[in-house]
Amino acid sequence: MIANIVSDKELVVLIHNAYAYITRKKVRTGILFLILMVILISLYECLSILSYNAQLERSLYSASHSSIVVQKKDGSEFEHTSFENSVYEYEFVSKLKEAKVVSIKQGVTLDSLPKEYKNVVSVIGTNNTSKNVLFRSGVFTLTSGKDIDSKDRNSILIHSDLAKKNHLKIGDTIVLNSHTYTIKGIFEGKKHETYTGLSSDLSENTMFVDYNSLDTKMVTKLTIDSNHLKQVQSLYPSSEYVVSKDKNAYQSSLESIQSMNHMIQILSCSIIVCGLVVLSLVLVLWLRDRIHEIGILLSIGKSKVEIIIQFIFELVFISIPSGIILCAYSVIKHNALCFTLSYGLLMSIIIVSVLIASLMIMIKKPREILSKLS
In a 3-state reduction of DSSP, which class is residue 2? Predict the structure, then answer.
């Protein structure tokens, strides 16, 4: 496009003049380099986060549509059918022995509770905690130890707040009713709570135990790794069961991802606007000091367009070192697309900023500019 505006010979002269200016004005070049580098890195980081979120969203979508959840309509327990790679979950309330539950700071308290309903915890028996919706959606995060799997027996995961209150760590034991479990992992997080006055309603008093230790074939939720929804539905009467795709983890995670994407998009737009404003103001101040140079270029026959192109070349040359550094980093991180987009946005910011700063040249006649030299 530039070749259609100026000849090849004139283009070479403009490139030479641009290079000569930035090497001669080292302080200005250094300041512009820092401004451009900050804009470029900020845009790259924002685009990287958006790219990562898009990949995460696709992964969650794939995972949520590759598994089927079976539950009773009334939420009661039922005997599970053996499926390959299926996850069993049996939820119940148990009394915590030799330890204290985490108490709520504010909320409803029931002083008239029977003794057996005090110091109780919510327990989820499962053969794979990593596929539990609370962990898959990121509501709960394992901070130490390991997940429960199908090989475990008498293993338990507890909340970090409960562990802290009772000075518990990995390898310690904890008693539920009369059953002793060994702590295999500690997690943190906060789920949606409906507080009824029982301590088991709190996230901090939620525990996960291995399904094998329950010695039962009953479940309250069955998750099956399968895409054959109709085939699974045929095994469970629709009058009693709800058989559907496991979208809970996807939906809950999608809300947080979309919220973050919205914030990053606003931040990206703010960076672009701030970059334009700052760069334009700096260029306006410095172009005023270059009136003499502009006047000389006009007097020897250079057009306004050629002068503006030279200014653009100057900023492009200044941006190249930061571009090379960031390009090498993006290749290592396998994120070349984000670099390409961020550098393209930087080029757009440079062009628009130069055009804004050059309005003083564009709106004035060459005679007016030359008259300032006298």
Answer: helix
